[in-house]
Amino acid sequence: xxxxxxxxxxxxxxxxxxxxxxxxxxxxxxxxxxxxxxxxxxxxxxxxxxxxxxxxxxxxxxxxxxxxxxxxxxxxxxxxxxxxxxxxxxxxxxxxxxxxxxxx
Length: 104
Description:
Elements: H1 13-36, E1 38-43, E2 48-53, E3 58-63, H2 73-103
Antiparallel strand pairs: 1-2, 2-3
């Protein structure tokens, strides 16, 4: 009894292995590039800007002086939370979409 490769469709094992290796290499290249890419999100109408890398390293937080109200520190804190959560979400969505394009 001969063993069959599932989903082979006449493709040799060597060709399939080569295809898998290419996909792995593409994924590794994508991951390395993605981790260094910078993503930015804003909150409070642009008064707060947060920049983070694809590896979730915080690179920069910019705060417009008008956003700093000593009487309402909670608003500034809320803006920071919103901007940070937005940039993390943007990173995850971009990674998922672009990785999906590689893995098909």
